[in-house]
Amino acid sequence: MLINKxxxxxxxxxxxxxxxxxxxxxxxxxxxxDGKRMAQMYIENYPLVDFEHDGEFVTKVIVLxxxxxxxxxxxxxxxxxxxxxxxxxxxxxxxxxxxxxxRIKELEQQLLEVQQYIINKEAxxxxxxxxx
Length: 132
Known about the structure:
By secondary structure, the protein is of the alpha+beta class. It has a 3-stranded antiparallel beta sheet, with no helix packed on it. It has a two-stranded antiparallel sheet with strand order 4-5. Strand 1 and strand 2 form a beta hairpin. The longest helix has 30 residues. The termini are far apart.
């Protein structure tokens, strides 16, 4: 298994080599019991993990503290992201409306405009009749 700060790669044919042959990747040697344990810990906790290495092999997998998940909000989804301080946090992201939902909103707005038009016309009639 290969890992770097952004991803992990698995290739069962080469469990203890840098088969990607790229800089910045470190090996978790899955041919050993410690390596299998570290690989499992890394995968189960990703992306909330960090690691130590000796320049080639991962020597320790560190599980990071998970931030508290905020409450759900209608129309938003919650995503786990790294902030500018390189800390994990949850953020709200707008859920795009479907075509049907957009059409409903459009019709609701048109209905409000018609209602306002009727109210304004009735008010004008009352004013003309001296009722207000």
